[in-house]
Amino acid sequence: MNKEWSLDFLYHGYDDPKFKADMEAVDGLIKRLNELSDSKEKMSPAQAIHDYLALNENFNELAFGLGAFCNLNMSVNTRDAQAASYMGQLMAKMSATTKATTSFRKYIASTENLDELIAGDELLKSYEYLLNNIVKDNKYLLSEEAEEIMALYDISGGSAWSDLQSSLTSSVTADFRGEKLNLSSIRNKAYDPDPAVRREAYEAELACYDKIKDSVAASLNSIKLQVINESRLRGYASPLDKTLQDARMKRETLDALMEAMHEYMPLFRRYLKIKAKALGHENGLPWYDLFAPMGKCDKTYTTEEARDYLLNIFGNFDKELHDMVERAFNESWIDFYPHEGKVGGAFCLGLPSYGQSRVLTNFDGSFSDVVTLAHELGHAFHNLNIESHRPLNRDYSMPVAETASTFNEHVIMDAAIKNAADPQEKLALIEGQLMDTTQIICDIYSRYYFETQVFANREESFMFPDTLCEMMLKAQDEAYGDGLDREFRHPYMWLCKSHYYSSGTSFYNFPYAFGGLFARGLYTKYVNEGASFISKYKELLKATTVNSVEDTAKIAGIDLTDKEFWRMSLRSYEERVDEFERLALNK
Which of 295, 342, 463, 486 has its CB 3.0 to 4.6 Å from that of 424, i.e. a possible disulfide? Predict the structure, then answer.
């Protein structure tokens, strides 16, 4: 089993004749798209829209494959100059379609008998949801010329600032016990069983940020100001309003989610104080012990053992999921280990046209890393369930993006807890589940609060690193409260989280809470309904790309604007916290 992923199914390298031919083919498709845009008024609306969709399918498939190849290479080697160069070329090519795309979207939105045209053409009918959203989004479009200019400026603006943050955080090193460790490696030591290692690593991590804080602060300020200006120009009430519109999600749903989370914050602060007491702390849990292991879960896993563990559990849930996970390990879908120049964290990139995904992790063998694999392979399973859609119907919005991944976590964790005979093993597993859940409740709440404040302040002032650190500490106080030791918080969480650094996607924080609690509710339904629920679950995953968030949930009989659904999901953790207290404090 390979430890690095293979991209040969895309291209064998930048010298691959197919790579060069496809780069040239993109130019041909752009030319055809622009010619079609110029001639559309001479065609019947039905034919013009049909041809536009068909041509866009070909263009998006080709450009996505090329972009995926470059991005995946850059994620494991941020110094890959060829990947960066070709990615820049692709972005420039993509910007050359902006004028034609904008013109066509306005043309579609102005077509009076669109419903009639959709009913009379199978291709249009398959894209009914997409076409209707084009009509809804039309009021936020600028002129063709303005859209083209904004796309061009983003290449050297927001996207460039984002690349800078990624490059700096992947190349910075921390001094730890005579070694130079990259950011992923030093942050992974937060899970070390030795409390001295955890604290020293925490201090080394905070110290290393001093080397790059000014540049990354400039990145954040520049990106957020660009988002504010663009949102205003387009007519959105705020960047959050734009995020919700892009997510196909109602503000009522977000409010119900956040209010329920706020109500149940004391439950997770209680967990933190129990953990603090068990570890000998008196004033809440210090940040460096947030991920401290408890109980006897000191087993480490090889990648082969992780594969076997996941296959055993998923085999009892669903054969289709089991078989996909087996393929992922056996067919080199996964890049496992951290190394210098590799981006931190974990992600999954779906390539549904190829029937595959690619998963990046920074695996160090802990059970938490096994759960991370399960999480990312949940994204791959989501991708599997949307493969049958047409190419332009394969994008799901941010909130539902974490559904299958977090559902996978519940399958793994509940099975592991149920099968744990040793109280110390059960303690370790329950604590691990609560630790992860506290991240999607308290930490995500703090990130949402922080980003809200950044947008509120950026228009009037540039926020230097010290100001951003103060804002982050205040956000952590709001979320963690007395569950966290105020002397040992993490002021630089704004710097190391890539989710803040996108000019195209803001507030990539609440979707994790949404996904976690939505998946928890779905998993509860699975527990109650049994195997008969699985087909409904897959139907729901497939529907995420062609339905609003609220309509997707209705497939499982859920009203997302009802706060009680979110309360139900949160309430399900009360017994877990009680059991954790009994095991941790021997009550």
Answer: 295
Catalogue the long-range contacts made by 447-450 (C-beta closer than 8 Å, 24 or more residues apart): 447/475, 447/493, 447/497, 447/499, 447/509, 448/258, 448/507, 448/509, 448/510, 448/513, 449/475, 449/478, 449/479, 450/475, 450/493, 450/494
Tokens of residue 286, six digits: 């210090």
184 and 362 Cβ atoms separated by less than 8 Å: yes
Strand partners, 351: 356
**Residue in 414, 465, 452 with CA at minimum distance from that of residue 168:** 465
Beta strands 173-176 and 347-351: pairing type? unpaired
With cut-offs at 50, 70 and 90, classify the pLDDT of residue 98: confident
| Secondary structure element (H or E) that encloses residue 412, with its range | helix 403-419
Pairing of strands 347-351, 356-360: antiparallel
C-alpha count within 13 angstroms, C-beta hemisphere, residue 137 = 19
> From the CA atom positions of the chain, what is the Rg in Å?
24
Specify whether the CB–CB gap between 141 and 176 falls below 8 A: no
Residue with tokens 């947030």: 290
pLDDT tens-place string over residues 544-567 = 999 999 999 999 999 999 999 999
Distance CA 497, CA 168 (A): 12
